[in-house]
Amino acid sequence: MRATTDLEDLGLDEGGHLLVQRGLAALPPGGRLTVTGRHPALRLHLAPWCREHGHRLADADADAGTGAAQVVIKGPAEELRWRDATRAGSAPGPPDRAADPGWGLAARGALVETGGPPIGAEWTERDHVWADIAPRLYAAAAASQWDPATAVSWPEYETARAALPDEVERAVVQVMTYLVENEQAALIIPARLLSQLHPHFREVMQLLAAQAADEARHVEVFTRRATLGGGPLGTSSAGGRASLQTLLNEPDFTTAGFLLSVLGEGTFLDLLRFLHQHAPDPVTADVTRLALRDEARHVAFGTAHTAHAVQADPGYLGTLRQAVERRHAALLDTAGLNAGVFDSLVLLAAGSWEPAALRKGWQAVRELRDQMDSGRRRRLAVIGFPDDEAAELSALHTRNFM
Ligand SMILES: [Fe+2]
Ligand SMILES: [Fe+2]
Asked: What's residue 272's pLDDT?
């Protein structure tokens, strides 16, 4: 079998090898490719290239010189190299199982040469990480990224501050201080899960990356609001941090997402809505509104994935229940919500130090806790818990909210 390719004046060292490769691709091992060209170093370059790629260059004709035809005899090496290669699943859909750790970091659907380093991903089963809503949520997340520098009405703070009593400013700073520590936990957890997730669940990987980026922005804007007035930050309670630590310590993908996103961030939806509603200045109103929008996606994925995992294995409800009970027991001796945060919420809702206003503020916080509870029960029901169990588990949720 003979084939010909003409390089004209193109050198092998300036892209000519592509034409030679293309000519050889159609040939079986042992097939001969006649290479013509006017480049003065054609034969000089072809010889080492052939050696490197397992082909053979036929002896030059006696009269061979510049411009003479060269004959490349195709070697077996390329065929051998790809003979045992496998397809790493298919590009469009997520696999049921990211089957072969040997695929390493190959793209989903790639033809994988054997022999590369294996990947050490822990989460390789579709049902352990997936939700059908993940691709749509990722697209929504990518389209909804906002710029902390311009999305918040920072310049309006100065005017608003003049009308803000010092105690109210301090209440905002206390709440922001609390929010920052919660956001830090909410950033670390998806980042940690992401690092152990097989990349073939790329839609979930992308969504978790966007979620971590969302939390990074929340940390930024809440910190910035806390420091706008130039005063010191508020307090961090041991009970609050103990609550967050139990989230960080949860090793299972689904359980960690359930505790963080369904119960914790779910509860935060009501908290952020409350803070937005009672914000005493436009910056506080902006940062809580923007965070709320992002959190709704985090809660949507956590709920959809947990429901997916329970559908695949209804016995998993028991595991989730145990996780809530275990966490409740671990936090029994802690104080729960930072008292300074609770008082700040009351003051923000009251809007003044009048006893009647404080009563209204206190009632508003009580209503907030009722709303948080009914939201949790609703999401627990979506996951598959019967109503009575949902009510029980919601009542066991950490008093720190997250
Ligand atoms: Fe957040
Ligand atoms: Fe979040």
From this structure: 98
CA of 289 to the centre of ligand 2 (A): 13
What mean pLDDT, rounded, does the chain reach?
94
How far is ligand 2, taken at its centre, from the CA of residue 156, in Å? 26
- Which of 353, 231, 233, 345 has its CA nearest to residue 288? 345
Kindly provide the residue ranges of all beta strands, DSSP E only, lying in 2-147, ordered along the sequence: 2-6, 32-36, 56-57, 70-73, 86-87, 111-112
In this predicted structure, what is the pLDDT of residue 281?
97
List phi, psi (to 5°) of 315: -65, -15
β-pairing, 32-36 vs 56-57, is unpaired
* b (16+ CB within 10 A) / e for 75-109: beebeeeeeeeeebbeeeebbeebebeebbebebe
Between the CA of 211 and the centroid of ligand 2 the distance, in Å, is 6
Positive or negative torsion for Cα 131, 383, 247, 292:
positive
Is pLDDT above 80 for 232?
Answer: yes
Question: Ligand 1 centroid vs 218 CA: distance in angstroms?
Answer: 5
Judged against a pLDDT cut of 50, whether residue 334 lies above it is answered with yes
* Ligand with minimal distance to 260 CA: 2
Percent of the chain residues past pLDDT 90, beyond the cut? 84
Cα-to-centroid distance, 94 and ligand 2 (Å): 24
What ligand has the least distance to the C-alpha of 298?
A: 2
Q: How far is the CA of 80 from the centre of ligand 2 (A)?
A: 49
Residues at Cβ < 5 Å from ligand 1 ion: 183, 186, 215, 218
**Comparing 89-98, 268-277, 289-298, 336-345, which segment has the lowest mean pLDDT?**
89-98
> Could you report the per-residue pLDDT of 6-40, keeping only the tens digit for each?
999 999 999 999 999 999 998 998 999 999 999 99
> What does the buried/exposed string (b/e) look like for 210-245 if buried means 16 or more CB atoms within 10 Å of the residue's CB?
bbbbbbebbbbbbbbbbebbeeeebeebebbebbbe
What is the number of other CB atoms lying within 10 angstroms of the CB of residue 311? 12
What tokens appear for 310 in the block? Answer: 């329970």
Going from the Cα of 142 to the center of ligand 2, the distance in angstroms, rounded, reads 15
Q: Is the pLDDT of residue 177 over 50?
A: yes
- Residue 234 CA: distances (Å) to CA of 215, 288, 339: 20, 18, 12
Strands 86-87 and 111-112 come out as antiparallel
Residues 6+ apart with CB under 8 A from 215: 183, 184, 186, 187, 190
